[in-house]
Amino acid sequence: MVRGLVLSSFGYCLVAFWAVIPARASVGYIVNCCDNPSTVGVYATSNDQQTAEWNVGTNAVAAVFSPDGKTAYIANQGTNGTPGVPGSITVVDVYSGATVATIQVGYSLEWMVLSKDGSRLYVDSYDAAYYGHVVAIDTATNTVSQAVEFPGLQGGPMALTPDGSTLYTASGYGGPVGVLAIDTGSLSVITTVSINTVFGLAITPDGKYLYASAFGSPTGVDVAVIDTSTNAVVTTIPLSATSLGASVQISPDGSMVWVSESSFITVI
Predict the structure, then answer these.
(1) Which of 122, 133, 150, 252 is the most exposed place for a label (fewest CB within 10 A)?
(2) The dihedral sign for the CA sequence 90, 36, 6, 165
(3) How far apart are CA 227 and CA 219, in angstroms?
(4) What percentage of the chain exceeds 70 in pLDDT?
(5) Is beta strand 166-171 parallel, antiparallel or unpaired with respect to 178-183?
């Protein structure tokens, strides 16, 4: 099953993500999520050979890179056992592989998104049935600046407008089902865009449209196109009736959208 595209590939045990580091060749990073500690394998894409390995936190599941490519933020789910290990973010210097900081978040982390200027990192969590948090982290100090409870938040894909003003994340199962539009200044809900179970979110480079892959009705998966100025669905694009939509990614020039499905990728 294809569960990720281009910059992100999320699986049950592995997470693969790619970055082009300034003054270096393209480098691939693969996380093994289900160990304590988890590890990140660093691979040269020119020959597919592993060049390094980083130790990160417990059950690493996702990663994002700073705009300059110098810093990686690895989300660690932690454990829910007794005594348990709280969720955290491992901050890694990409050049050396050294851990710069470990940000204790305290929740079972799921997804992350970084602001365009790299100053704010947003994480959502799934802490218990029908209950989660959205957490804002100041990357200058590597500290949690806000954490807000969201009953009904299932923890899912996140997207951020280029100006950093609005955060989008999935919600369902016990709360409003759809996409939450959240004001990043207060972490309060602006509105909920009513869409069935959401698999992936991506915003166009100009910030005008949000693409959301979700269970459609009555056949399979649709991609909903949302106008971010009104938070209204302006059109839906049906996919294969047998598809299981997952990640969504938009090309840098905004001309194409890639949606991963059961065993293939749809290009819009």
Answers:
(1) 252
(2) negative
(3) 23
(4) 71
(5) antiparallel
Tell me which residue of 57, 65, 88, 53 sits closest to 17, measured CA to CA: 65
Tokens representing residue 174 in the block: 């016990």
Which regions in the chain score pLDDT beneath 70? 1-36, 80-84, 127-130, 152, 154-155, 172-176, 215-221, 240-246, 261-268
Long-range contacts of 31-39 (CB under 8 A, 24+ apart): 31/56, 31/60, 31/61, 31/63, 31/74, 32/60, 33/59, 33/60, 33/61, 33/77, 34/59, 35/59, 36/79, 36/85, 38/74, 38/76
As a three-state string, the secondary structure of 148-168 is EEEECCCCCCEEECCCCCEEE
Q: What is the pTM of this model?
A: 0.82
Question: Phi and psi for 240 in degrees, rounded to 5?
Answer: -60, 140
Please check whether residue 92 is in contact with residue 27, taking contact to mean a CB–CB distance below 8 angstroms. Answer: no
Nearest residue to 107 via CA among 44, 139, 149, 52: 149
Cβ count near 110 (within 10 Å): 24
Please give, one letter per residue, the 3-state secondary structure of the chain: CCCEECCEEECCCEEEEEEECCCCCEEEEEEECCCCCCEEEEEECCCCEEEEEEECCCCEEEEEECCCCCEEEEEECCCCCCCCCCCEEEEEECCCCCEEEEEECCCCEEEEEECCCCCEEEEEECCECCEEEEEEEECCCCEEEEEEEEECCCCCCEEECCCCCEEEEEECCCCCCEEEEEECCCCEEEEEEECCCEEEEEECCCCCEEEEEEECCCCCEEEEEEECCCCEEEEEEECCCCCCCCCEEECCCCCCEEEECCCCEEEC
